[in-house]
Amino acid sequence: MTQPLPHQAEAALAPVRTALLSAAAAEARELLDRADREAGALIAEARDRARSLLEDARRQGERDGAAAARGIRARARGTARARELATRGRIYEDLRSRALARVREAWDATTRPADLGLLRSRARRVLGPDTEVTEAPGGGVVARLADRRADYTLEALTARAVDRLGAEVETLWSA
């Protein structure tokens, strides 16, 4: 157990105590001021970093959004092109069907024997005089000589005629 200091010693140490307390308070203020400055600098640095990260994220988001938009536009163009081509194909097939119907109507008319004769002659000119020519069930003829074959059926003749229209057929869907 420590014994209390005599009153004189306590009085003599009072200025030292005051000086120590004053020095400790000044050091504490200095430490607090330094901590406040460092905290302020850290907060400012964190804010700058956060702004930079947000700006980077915004730019990346814009790039990602632009890339996604390009992809969506490309898919939309592809879908539109596929639909356009499908529609053109349907129009083309409709043209072939209608043309074949007209050819069959004309075939069933009184000129059929003469037309058969012309088709037989054409097949023999193409394949040779020994060509075997048979009348096709749907109209026209099919000719064979050895491993060669000539198709002069109404369907084949109509398809070739429509195919020969070439770019003129495009006027059907570009008008």
Write up this protein.
This protein has 175 residues and is mainly α. Helices cover 75% and strands 9% of the residues. It has a three-stranded antiparallel beta sheet with strand order 1-2-3. α1 packs across α3. The longest helix is centred in the N-terminal third of the chain and has 101 residues, at 7-107. The chain is rod-shaped. 6% of the residues are buried. The mean pLDDT is 87. Residues 25-63 form a coiled coil. Keywords: Coiled coil.
Summarize the structure.
The protein is mainly α and 175 residues long. It is built from four helices and three strands.
List keywords for this structure.
175 residues; mainly alpha; coiled coil
Low-confidence residue ranges: none
| Adjacency order of strands in the biggest sheet | 1-2-3
The major β-sheet equals:
3 strands, antiparallel
Portion in helices: over 70%
Number of helices: 4
Overall radius of gyration: 50 Å
Q: Which structural class do you get from the secondary structure elements?
A: mainly alpha
Shape: rod-shaped
Summarize model confidence as the mean pLDDT. Answer: 87
Please report the total strand number as a whole number. 3
Instruction: Note the run of SSEs as H and E.
Output: HHEEEHH
Distance between the termini: 115 Å
Strand proportion: 5-15%
